[in-house]
Amino acid sequence: MTRKKNRPALLIANRLDDGIAVFWSPNGWTKKPTLAGYLPDESTQTVAEKSALIDVDNNLVIGPLLVAATLVSGVPSPDHPKYSIQADGPTVIYGEAEYNARSQRHVSNV
C-alpha cells in the first residue's frame, strides 16, 4: 500500500462516497487533520495501514498513503504543501454549495 517512512507520518486517504480527503485516527477517519492519528514510528504506521486496508476492503476509503508530518504546537500537520492544501478541503466550491451559490446569482430582486 505505502512505503514505510523513516520519520513521523499521517495516513491520508479519500472517502469512497464523496472523494473528500480524510485522515486516519484510532477513532476512525476524520476530515480534520488536527484529530488525525500522529504516527511517530514504523510500528504505529503499520497498525494504521492494517486498519486502513480493512476500510479499503469495506469500500470506505481509497488510496491510503503515509505522508510525512510534524507536530506544530502539539497538532499534527502534513509536511508537504499538497497534503496541507488537501487537508484544508476543496479549493473550489462544488456540489450543493456550488448550486446554491449559482442560484443566488440568478435571483432577481424585482
Question: What would you note in describing this structure?
Answer:
The protein is of the alpha+beta class and 110 residues long. It has one domain. 31% of the residues lie in helices and 24% in strands. It contains three helices and four strands, in the order ββαββαα. It has helices at 42-57, 81-87, 95-105; strands at 9-15, 21-23, 61-72, 75-78. It has a four-stranded antiparallel β-sheet with strand order 2-1-3-4, with helices on one face. A hairpin with a 5-residue loop joins strand 1 (9-15) and strand 2 (21-23). The N and C termini lie far apart (58 Å). The model has no long low-confidence stretch (mean pLDDT 82).
Short description:
With 110 residues, the chain is of the alpha+beta class. Helices cover 31% and strands 24% of the residues.
C-alpha geometry: globular
Helix content: 25-40%
Helix- and strand-based class?
alpha+beta
Taken in chain order, the helices and strands follow as: EEHEEHH
How does the major sheet shape up?
4 strands, antiparallel
Task: Spell out the blueprint of helices and strands.
Elements (H helix, E strand, L loop, with lengths): L8 E7 L5 E3 L18 H16 L3 E12 L2 E4 L2 H7 L7 H11 L5
Antiparallel strand pairs: 1-2, 1-3, 3-4
Give me some keywords for this one:
single chain; 110 residues; alpha+beta; four-stranded antiparallel sheet; 3 helices
